Amino acid sequence: MACYGQNGLRRVLTGAAIGLVLAVTGTAGLAQAHTGTAPASAAAKARAVCPPTPLWANTGGNDQRLIQYDTTGTALSNVPLARDYGDIAFSPNGSTLYGVDFPGAPDSATLYTIDPVTGAETAGRPISGPLAAVTSVPAVNGLTARADGMLIAGSFNSSQIFLIDPATGVSTLFPASFPAGTVSAGDFITLDDGDVLAFGSTVVGGPSPVFRIRPDNTVVQIGTVPQTFGAAKSAGSVYAFASNGDINLLTSLPTTASTSPLPVTTVEATGRGFYGATSAQDSGSCVVPAYTVAKSASPTGPVNQGNTITYRLTVTNTGTTAANGDFTDDLSDVLDDATFVPGSLTSTSGSANLTGNTLTWTGTLAPGGTATVTYQVRANTPDTGDHTLVNYVAPTAPGGSCSSARSCSVTIHVKKKHDHEDCDEPGHGHKPGHGGKPGHGHDHGHDDVHEGDEDKAA
After folding, report:
1. In angstroms, rounded to a whole number, what is the distance separating the alpha carbons of residues 262 and 242?
2. What string of DSSP letters covers 219-268?
3. How far apart are CA 269 and CA 223, in angstroms?
4. Are strands 291-298 and 400-402 parallel, antiparallel or unpaired?
5. CB 57, CB 70: distance < 8 Å
6. Could you tell me which residues come within 8 angstroms of residue 389 by beta carbon, excluding any fewer than 6 positions away?
7. 117 or 420: whose pLDDT is higher?
């Protein structure tokens, strides 16, 4: 999420680009409802660690992009965005991606929905209430879904924390705030134990204080991290994306009060300027990607030498959140008997490539989305291989599986040269007196006994 010092924000408002940073985090529990004060007994119970899920970040300034990362810092997708967003956030089930404009004009901040596959805005709703009235500008730079669907939001120009109803855009006051002199640095994460992790900002360029907001709404600082402007989480781990472009893994999240630096491990030095971050698990929900792959071929065989076979591979997002549907297709036991037809590789979306004997597809799919990859091979003439085309497709991203027990493998037999695909033609191969024309069946000089001739006269 975006966060600047007072002078830095003024530079943004005059058009100068300022790099920001992302963060990423592990699984979480349930935050308190947005009205009233929850008793201590309302703290969520610790949960089992979720499987990994991708981390999403938005950059801004002269490089407005939506980037999907895995937990090693490898970029999985990268698409353009329409504007600067102070932060982004997935809904609790991962089906909707929200973004809020930064810094936003007084009384006219806007909550957008964004297509995570294309980066395009799909809707916009004005934000009203106390968050929109923050002066001099709302400067919303913290946005994270809570398990009940409400969005927790922070502002660079206020120590107060807010809630936004995404259905109406109406903001209300969250029953907790940062300490005096501290404002939002860019994110909130619901942790496994029910606490909300919050990143603050006090001095431009200085480290970011990190707080736990208890279910009873008490706020406790637990340490500091290198200046951080966003957070997201995956599989129980917390990552903080620093203002210098480093992705830092937070290796410890203490529960007691401290102002000491928290231990971190740098996962990747990206060199990018991030404005926000999110994952489908930020709200405490254990949302994971899910997709299936399947393959088929036509004809199904047996085929003659010289015949062309068309393969079709289909990848489908079967989950509730955007997913990477990567897969590989091993053609090593196909190309010993056949030749890949140049120019035949096509894909309805994503990127398909053949390197050596391995076909790869990479791409991101929205929930329910499907991509189809097709290619052709031609059986060699002569076929000097084992006369069997066998290949396997394998999902390679988290959450991938075969659509059925046999859907990831195809086997096609190639007829050998002495196979007679025309033996069943009427009259062909019959000796005189067996229904054929006199002499028919000897034109090709065949002396072998054909299947079905066992009952000929001795």
Report:
1. 13
2. EEEEEEESSEEEEEEETTEEEEEETTSEEEEE----SS---SBPPEEEEE
3. 22
4. parallel
5. no
6. 301, 309, 333, 334, 337, 338, 377, 379, 410, 411, 412, 413, 414
7. 117
Q: Give the residue with greater pLDDT, 406 vs 36.
A: 406
Helix (H, G, I), strand (E, B) or coil at 41: helix
* Distance separating alpha carbons of residues 26 and 154, to the nearest angstrom: 20
| Domains of the chain and any CATH numbers | 6-278 (2.115.10), 291-413 (2.60.40.1530)
Note the pLDDT tens digit of each residue in 69-121.
999 999 999 999 999 999 999 999 999 999 999 999 888 899 999 999 999 99
Using CA atoms, how far residue 73 sits from 67, 95, 199, in Å, is 11, 23, 21
H helix or E strand, kind and range, residue 10: helix 6-13
Closest CA to 30 of 142, 233, 194: 194
Can you give the pLDDT at residue 64? 96
Instruction: Tell whether omega for the bond before 136 is within 30 degrees of 0, i.e. cis.
Output: yes
> CB neighbours (10 Å) of residue 170?
17
> Which of 228, 281, 271 shows the shortest CA–CA distance to 1?
228
pLDDT band at 418 (very low <50, low <70, confident <90, very high): low
Task: Tell me if 238 sits within 8 A of 28, measured CB to CB.
Answer: no
Report pTM.
Answer: 0.80
Can you tell me the distance from the alpha carbon of 37 to that of 228, in angstroms, rounded to the nearest whole number? 29
Give the list of residues 6+ apart from residue 169 with CB closer than 8 angstroms, or none. 111, 125, 126, 127, 128
Cβ count near 427 (within 10 Å)? 11
For residue 134, pLDDT beyond 80: yes
